[in-house]
Design goal:
binds magnesium ion, binds adenosine-5'-triphosphate, four-stranded antiparallel β-sheet, 7 helices, Rossmann fold, alpha/beta, six-stranded mixed β-sheet, 35% helix
Amino acid sequence: MRFRAVDLRYGSGPEILRGLSFHLMSGSFQFLTGPSGAGKTSLLKLMYLAHPPSGGAIELFDQVVKGLSRDQMAAMRRRIGVVFQDFRLIDHLSCIDNVSLPLRIVGEEGKSVNANARELLEWVGLDGKMNSKPATLSDGEKQRVSIARAVIGRPDLLIADEPTGNVDGDQGVRLMRLFEELNKIGTTVIIATHDEGMVARFSHPVLRLKEGCLTRIQ
Ligand SMILES: Nc1ncnc2c1ncn2[C@@H]1O[C@H](COP(=O)(O)OP(=O)(O)OP(=O)(O)O)[C@@H](O)[C@H]1O
Ligand SMILES: [Mg+2]
């Protein structure tokens, strides 16, 4: 993914991101840090095509993201897995159905979908919660369901917004290992986090956002 002089403002509000230029190499693993309100979630929204930039250009999967048809945008979005800061689980579906959803949306059916979802829920430590509804889960549990859902489609790009913000240290490390496994099989990973301890523990390059501008630390 490449950003060329990208700006972002919401409506007629102030500029949140200013002149961001960087290249996220395919297959890389990148942290994004910065103080609360710096614009991390906003930058991720540009990356997962939930908001257009107000200036500059974004290239994703070797295609300029501008003037694309709805179908082309949808096809791009299907290659992206997102862990939202606020989880966004579907309330009336069980954990296993939430996790299976990305595969069902693209027409996959049957036992293998369930088995896949089950395996991921076990991986994130939710063996006992397969049939629970999101409302009955703690925030850390919801976060783990949302991670399982984001990775089940083996996305080309995984974008995670504070994915370890609601779990304890050991769980956080375990989740990071899951992201690393995914990265090893080719997924490009970007993780926004406040957690400097996590950033220090894993040696991946860091993009640091401050007052709407980016610095890159290798
Ligand atoms: N939909 C929106 N409309 C208007 N302003 C917004 C919107 N979303 C975010 N902002 C503003 O953009 C700025 C950056 O917010 P953003 O959520 O991207 O920060 P963040 O770095 O993710 O913060 P945190 O670490 O608290 O999650 C803030 O000043 C926020 O008020
Ligand atoms: Mg945020």
